[in-house]
Design goal:
By secondary structure, the chain is mainly β. Helix 4 packs antiparallel against helix 5 (568-581). The longest helix is centred in the last third of the chain and has 14 residues, at 568-581.
């Protein structure tokens, strides 16, 4: 073992502290303990292994203090990864040229308060990670001079950076592939990376001004994240030039205006488009029909004035469509086999001016919403990789969205790929609730509130056994609340307030958890939790929706009453026997066979 040069124990479940016997391996050139559950401090003797060239300790639970001068003992090291632990690195003022020359340096989440001075003389860096620290103030001017010809990836995201000592027109690293500046407090105009850049993120800052035309030189872009700033103006038309390579475009939560740019002028690889929370006007460009790979389209909270874009239903991969809070109007056109939204999981049309009947044919054919979830929890994402000579860089783009769930607006930093939702609230829809909604057994959220919907609540909604949130409030619904809704045993939020519902409130299971506010504004409703008691112990006369259940249950209880004279237990037993063993005869003689439903066990994350 004393001659061992490489020890790779990464990505296991090792726990405890770094063992002291490792210090005896004096010939080690590579030590990999990444992604385990190691804790405690890093032994200072580890820095006596002077032959080390690669040291990977990231993604553990290591803690304590590491002084930078210890690194100077590792004369031969050029790849060091300490990220994602609980370490505190104490820098010291030194620009000593004898400090190791790094190729890769990972110092994410290391409680740094400033850019380490030793970076001044780092001219061979390819990967520099400084994310999630406590670095305040401006990016020093000398940073532009480090590793100008070699740097491929720079990530100082998640700090408190306010800007640049000297703002360059174009950032100086000629080979840069990846630049992460997100989640700082950067002010001023948008920094422009070099044309070589594949991935650029500067979201969640305070940048102002327009998108410079120089950005259009970045024809290799795979992802562009400019969301949550104060950028304004129109999107340059030239941005269509890099749409062939682009996978993710996120410009949401800014002050952009004008028409939505013609993003997909030719077939391309775009999977994510998020232009929400801006001031875009006009119609949705038909060029989006060329985005045949598109999975996630978010255009909510703009001023788009258009009819429902039924033609987007031709996109075979579209999973998320969010159009809320715009000026969409008119009726939703009849379903067509060429525009059937085959992969749709989430649709949000709330707070528009849509009218007409609810689109029952769409509900019948949204097949992806009929699937109950599987065993593995996964998130909606796009996977890709950057490829340059000598480098393959796998990258995940995690989809995110904002949606109202359980009467609260919620930001989903990650969206489970089994989450399904329909929000048509705050429009002018009318007519009845289609029974076909009951076929969408994978639904977790259904919001039809604040419309002009009338008629009865269909008992078929009881088939939605995965449903967690149901809002039918502020409509013109009448009749009784179907008892079948008690089958929805995952239901956490229920609101039928401000309708014309009558009769007793169903009791038991989830209904015992709902408060008065779920039912108020219906003078004809009675029973718990309302203070109005129902008129007697007898059940109210059956409504047409309850008659849909068939007459088998009614006949069963007739057997119970018949058995009262000769013993209630015997009567129940006889009834059960006939119901169980003579069912076909029973149905043919006394009524329509009732469909038997079983609860589907739920696996995965509950939103």
């Amino acid at each position: 073992m004393s001659q061992l040069s490489t020890l790779n124990l990464g990505e296991n479940q090792l726990s405890g502290q770094i063992p002291p016997w490792l210090m005896n391996l004096t010939q080690l050139t590579q030590l990999d303990l990444e992604e385990n559950q190691l804790e405690g401090s890093i032994p200072s003797s580890l820095f006596e292994l002077i032959n080390l060239q690669y040291l990977y300790l990231h993604s553990n639970y290591l803690n304590g203090t590491v002084r930078f001068h210890l690194l100077s003992k590792l004369k031969n090291i050029f790849q060091l990864e300490l990220s994602n632990n609980r370490l505190s690195l104490l820098s010291y003022n030194s620009t000593n040229s004898t400090f190791p020359k790094f190729n890769l340096l990972g110092l994410n989440d290391c409680n740094l308060t400033e850019f380490p001075d030793f970076l001044w003389n780092q001219h061979e860096l390819e990967w520099l990670a400084l994310a999630g620290n406590n670095i305040h103030g401006t990016i020093p001017r000398w940073m532009w001079n480090i590793s100008r010809e070699t740097l491929l990836s720079l990530d100082p995201s998640g700090n408190f950076l306010t800007g640049f000592d000297q703002h360059p027109v174009v950032l100086p690293w000629s080979r840069l592939l990846r630049l992460e500046l997100a989640s700082n407090i950067l002010q001023g105009p948008l920094p422009i990376p070099p044309p070589s850049t594949f991935q650029y993120s500067v979201s969640r800052n305070k940048l102002t001004g327009k998108i410079p035309a120089l950005l259009c030189n970045m024809t290799s872009l795979v992802s562009l994240y400019l969301s949550s700033n104060n950028l304004s103006g129109r999107i340059p038309r030239c941005m269509a030039n890099f749409s062939k390579s682009l996978i993710a475009l996120q410009l949401g939560n800014n002050n952009f205006d004008g028409p939505i740019p013609e993003t997909c002028t030719v077939p391309n690889n775009l999977r994510v488009i998020d232009l929400s929370e801006n001031q875009f006007q006009g119609q949705i460009p038909r060029s989006l029909a060329n985005c045949v790979m598109l999975e996630h389209l978010v255009l909510g909270n703009n001023q788009i004035d258009d009819v429902f874009p039924f033609w987007l239903g031709a996109l075979p991969q579209l999973q998320v469509l969010i159009l809320r809070s715009n000026k969409f109007h008119g009726a939703i056109k009849s379903w067509h086999t060429n525009f059937r939204f085959p992969s749709l999981h989430i649709i949000d049309l709330s707070n528009n001016e849509l009218a007409g009947d609810l689109p029952y044919e769409y509900f019948q054919n949204w097949d992806a919403m009929k699937l109950t979830e599987g065993d593995d929890l996964r998130y909606m994402q796009a996977n890709t990789r950057f490829e340059k000579p000598g480098y393959i860089i796998p990258t995940e783009f995690i989809y995110s969205m904002t949606m109202t769930n359980k009467d609260m607006q919620r930001y989903y930093e990650k969206v489970p790929d089994t989450f399904t939702a329909i929000d048509f609230s705050s429009n002018n829809f009318e007519g009845s609730i289609p029974t076909s909604i009951g076929s969408l057994k994978g639904l977790h959220l259904l919001n039809l509130g604040d419309n002009n919907i009338s008629g009865h609540i269909p008992s078929s909604l009881g088939n939605l056994t995965q449903l967690e949130s149901l809002d039918l409030s502020k409509n013109k619904l009448s009749g009784e609340i179907p008892s079948q809704l008690t089958w929805m045993t995952f239901l956490e939020f229920f609101n039928v307030s401000d309708n014309n519902l009558t009769g007793p409130i169903p009791q038991g299971k989830q209904f015992s958890t709902f408060s008065n506010t779920s039912f108020e504004g219906n003078p004809g409703l009675c029973g718990t939790p309302l203070s109005r008691a129902c008129g007697g112990s007898e059940a109210s006369p059956p409504t047409p929706s309850s008659l849909e259940q068939g007459s088998t249950s009614e006949f069963y209880w007739k057997f119970v009453l018949m058995g009262y004279g000769s013993g209630l237990v015997i009567g129940v037993s006889i009834g059960y026997y006939l119901m169980s063993w003579k069912h076909e005869w029973f149905v043919a003689t006394f009524g329509k066979q009732q469909r038997k439903w079983t609860r589907t066990e739920r696996m995965g994350l509950r939103s």
